[in-house]
Structures
1.
Amino acid sequence: MQHESPPDAWSEARATMVREQIAGRGIRDPRVLAALARVPRHELVPEAQREYAYEDQPLPIGYEQTISQPFVVAYMTEQLQLRGDERVLEIGTGSGYQAAVLSLLAREVYSIEIVKELGERARADLARLGYANVHVRVGDGYRGWPEQAPFDAIIVTAAPGHVPQPLIDQLAVGGRLVLPVGGYDQELLRIERDATGLRREHLIGVRFVPMRGEAQTRE
Ligand code: SAH
C-alpha cells in the first residue's frame, strides 16, 4: 500500500528492537530471537499504534486490552523452551502477536480469547499473514482446551489470582506452564511437570490485565 513505510523500514525497526530490547537484555535462545525478528508486529496492532509497534512498551489493542511489551513476550517464550515439535496452548490471544511468535517455534498453537471481537480479528489477521498452525477459539480459557490436551507448553497472558487447576491438569509430562499470578502486582510463575510431580519456580514481577470469567468468580 502506498501510504505505508517501505517493508525494509519495518524489518530494520524490528532488528533494532531485537538487538536492543531483547538480546540486549539477556534473551539468548537463537530461535526466539529469530522469531521476534520475523513476526510483523505492526500488522497485528491497531492502525493508530503502528508507528509504536517496535517500541519498548505494551500497546492498547482495544476493548481495554493490551499487547505485551516485546521483551515480556520474548522472556515468556524463552521460558517455554520450545524446540519445534510441541503442541502449545495460549490463554489470551489478544492481538495474536504472541501466538504468531509461538507458531514459528512449535508445531501447533491453540489459543483462546474471551473477547469475541479480538478473537475473531486475531484469527483473521493470523490467517492473512499465513500462520496456518494457529487455532483460535473464542471463550473462557480458565478450563483450557481439554479436547486438544495434553500440551507440552502452556502460556497465559492475562493474570488470574490463582493457578487454574484445569491448566495444570492439561500439562503433559515434561510440560511447562508459564503464567502471571496476582492482583495489581503479579509474579510470573513457571510450573513444570516431570515424572514425579510439579516443580514451581518464581521468575520476575510483571503486570498483565486480569484474567476474566471463571478465574474472577473463584477468587
Ligand atoms: N497474548 C496477547 C496479549 C493479550 S492481553 C497478545 O500477544 O496480544 C490479554 C488477553 O487475554 C486479552 O485479549 C483478554 O481479553 C484475554 N483474556 C482475559 N481473560 C481471559 C480468559 N479467561 N480467557 C481467554 N482470554 C482472556
Note: Residues 65-68, 91-92, 94-95, 97-98, 112-115, 118, 140-142, 157-158, 209, 211-213, 215 surround S-adenosyl-L-homocysteine (CB under 6 Å).
2.
Amino acid sequence: MARIIKLILLGAPGAGKGTQAEIISEKYAIPAISTGAIIREAIQNGTEMGLSAKSYIESGALVPDEVVIGIIKDRLAQSDCENGFILDGFPRTVPQAAALDKMGVEITDVISIEVPDERILKRMGGRRVCKKCGATFHTEYKPSPNGDKCPCGAELTIRSDDDPAVVAQRLETYHEMTEPLKDFYAQKGLLKIVEGQEELEDTTALTQKALEG
Ligand code: ADP
Ligand code: ZN
C-alpha cells in the first residue's frame, strides 16, 4: 500500500506550484487544493467572500488569514481529502501554518520549488487561464492544445494580477510573509527543496524524487 501524502507546496508566485500540484494530483489520485483558484472562483461568482477578497488579490496583497483559514477548513473536511491532498498556495503565512496544526492536520511532506525572481518576472507574461473551467497554461512552457483557446472551447485570458507591477508586489509579499515558512517546516524535519528547472519535465522529475526519496 502506498503511504498517504499530505503535501504542502511552497514557492513564489509563478514558480510552477500549480502545475506540479496537478501532475501529483493525477499520479496519486488525491485532490490539489489551490486557495488562489477557490478565491478567484468566488470573485467570478460574485459571492460575499469573493467581493471582500477582490481588492487584496488585485493589488498583489494577501487575503486576510481568517478568510483563507476558513476556506481550507471547509475544503479539508470534504471526504475526498481523507486519503491525502496537495495544498498549493496555503499556508502562506506563519499564522496560517499554525492554524493547520491547530486543526490537527498532519502534513507528511513540504516541498519548496525555488526559482530566481528574475526568471519568474520573465515567465509570468506567458501565463494564461481559462475563465470558464479554470485550466491554466503557459504560451511557452505549457501551451494549450487548442491554441488561443482552452480545450473546453472558451477563450484563454491573462490574470489581472499577472500584470508586471502586481507580480513584483506579489514577489515581495512572498519573500516577506511566506518564505519564513521554510524555517517553520525545516524545524519539523519536513522541508525539501526543489530547484525549479527551465524544462517542466525536469522540475517534475526532481519533485517526484523529493516525494519518493
Ligand atoms: P500564485 O501562486 O501564482 O501567487 P495563487 O493563485 O496561489 O497564485 O494566488 C493568487 C492570490 O490569491 C494571491 O496573490 C493572494 O492575494 C490570494 N491568496 C491565495 N492563497 C492565499 C493564502 N493562503 N493567503 C492569503 N492570500 C492568498
Ligand atoms: Zn476551459
Note: The two ends are 16 Å apart (CA to CA).
